[in-house]
Design brief:
229 residues; globular; homodimer; alpha+beta; 34% strand
C-alpha cells in the first residue's frame, strides 16, 4: 500500500481508528465523489466553495474561478484545502449522544498552481469532464483555443492528504443503553442518477448516448462501472 | 422577502443571475442539506471539515470538535465559512465548455461562538438531531449532563450569507453548437434514504419507529415531509 506523507494536520486527533493515509483509499474516495468543497483564505478569513474536480494520477484539477482570482492576486500558489465527502447513512443510536453519520471523506492540503499550459489544461478538462460523466470527453465538442483560454483550472498535488471512513452501527450497542426500548440502526443514504431530460431547445431529437443512458438508476459513485463492463 | 445584509464577499462576481440574498431561500437550502463543509484558518492555512448541523431560527449550530479546538485556542470567536451544497443534476452540453452542474448552495460567513450554556446546548442538539432525522429528538434518549458537557457545539448567526442556484438546461442551446449532432440535456441526481438496517447487536427486535420508516425511499431533502402530513 502506497502511503502518503503524514504531517501534523493530516494526523488524526479524534477517532484515529477511522483515519488512513493510503493512496488507494484516497483515490477511491476522490473518484467516488461528484463535487468537492475547497477552502482558501481571503483577506484573512476562510472561504469554502463547491466545485467540480477531476483526478489525473496524483494530481487533482479544480475548476476555480474564485480561487484563481486570489491565486493570481498572490502571484503564485496559494494554500488550499480540498475536501470530498460522501454521506453513506445516518447512524441512529439509542442515545442522542451516540448519533453519528456513516461517511467517507478525503482532505487534501497543498499549494495550488494555476494551470496555464494548453496541453495540461486539456488533460485537466478531460479529467474533470470524465470524472463527472465518464465518456463525455470523447463525445462532446472539445474546447476551442478561445474557450480554453477563458477556462481557469487549478492543479493540486496529492501529497499531503488524509481519508476518513465511518462504516459501522450505533456506538451504544454494547453499553447500558442497549436494553432501552429504542430502535437503533443505520438508515442508508444513496445518491443516484435519474432519467435524462432532453434539452427542450434542441434543434431535433437526438438519442441519449449510451454512456449517459447507462448511468440511469446507478449510484453516482458507481459511474465508472458501465465503461468497465 | 427578508433580505440579508450584503457585503463584499457575499456580492456575486460570476453568474450574478444565479445569486440571491433572501432569507427564505437561505433557510430552504440549509434545511434541505444533510451535512455542511465549514472552513477555518489553522496556522494561516485553510481547513475544510464536513459535519452535521442544524438551524434554529437565524442561528446555525455545528458539531465542531476541530473548530472548537482552534476556537478555544483563540479564546473567543473565530472566522468561519459554512457551505451547504446540493447537487441536482449534471448539465451535459454539446460543447465541453458549456458543461455545468445544477445545484443549490448556501455560504454563511461569520464569527463562531462556542456554546457553553446547557440550555442553549440542548436547543442546539435538538436542532442538529431533528435536522438530520426529524422526530428523533423526541424518540431517543436525551443527553445526560456528562454527555452534554462532552459535546462541543458551535453557533453561527445567519447574518452574512448568500445563496446560489443553477436550475436550467445547457448553455449552448441558443448558439451555433445547437445544430451539432450531439445530445444535450440534464442528467438529474437525487439523494435518497434506503431501507433501515437494524443494529445487529440489539438485545431484542424493536420495530423501526414511524418517523424513520416514513423516510424510506424519500429524497433526503424532503425528510420533513412525513411530519408535515
Amino acid at each position: 500500500v502506497s502511503q502518503l506523507t503524514q504531517t501534523a494536520r493530516t494526523t488524526f486527533g479524534r477517532h484515529r481508528e477511522r483515519g488512513g493515509h493510503d493512496r488507494e483509499l484516497l483515490h477511491a474516495i476522490l473518484d467516488a465523489g461528484t463535487i468537492c468543497h475547497f477552502g482558501i483564505v481571503m483577506d484573512g478569513a476562510p472561504m469554502v466553495v463547491p466545485t467540480v474536480y477531476g483526478r489525473d494520477g496524483d494530481t487533482v484539477y479544480l475548476h476555480g474561478s474564485v480561487a484563481s482570482r486570489s491565486l493570481m492576486a498572490a502571484g503564485g500558489g496559494i494554500d488550499i484545502c480540498m475536501t470530498v465527502s460522501l454521506v453513506d447513512g445516518l447512524v441512529l443510536a439509542r442515545s442522542v449522544f451516540e448519533h453519528s453519520v456513516n461517511y467517507r471523506s478525503a482532505m487534501v492540503y497543498g499549494r495550488s498552481r494555476l494551470v496555464s499550459d494548453a496541453a495540461e489544461k486539456l488533460i485537466a478538462l478531460r479529467a474533470v469532464t470524465d470524472h463527472v460523466c465518464p465518456g463525455q470527453w470523447d463525445y462532446a465538442r472539445r474546447p476551442s483555443k478561445k474557450e480554453l483560454a477563458a477556462t481557469t483550472v487549478i492543479a493540486l498535488p496529492l501529497l499531503e492528504a488524509s481519508s476518513k471512513v465511518r462504516d459501522s452501527g450505533p456506538g451504544d450497542s454494547d453499553g447500558p443503553d442497549r436494553d432501552l426500548p429504542i430502535w437503533a440502526g443505520v438508515l442508508p443514504i444513496r445518491t443516484l442518477f435519474g432519467t435524462p431530460i432532453d434539452d427542450p431547445a434542441a434543434a431535433r431529437p437526438i438519442d441519449t448516448p449510451a454512456h449517459v443512458s447507462g448511468l440511469v438508476g446507478l449510484a453516482t459513485e458507481d459511474r465508472r462501472a458501465p465503461l468497465q463492463r
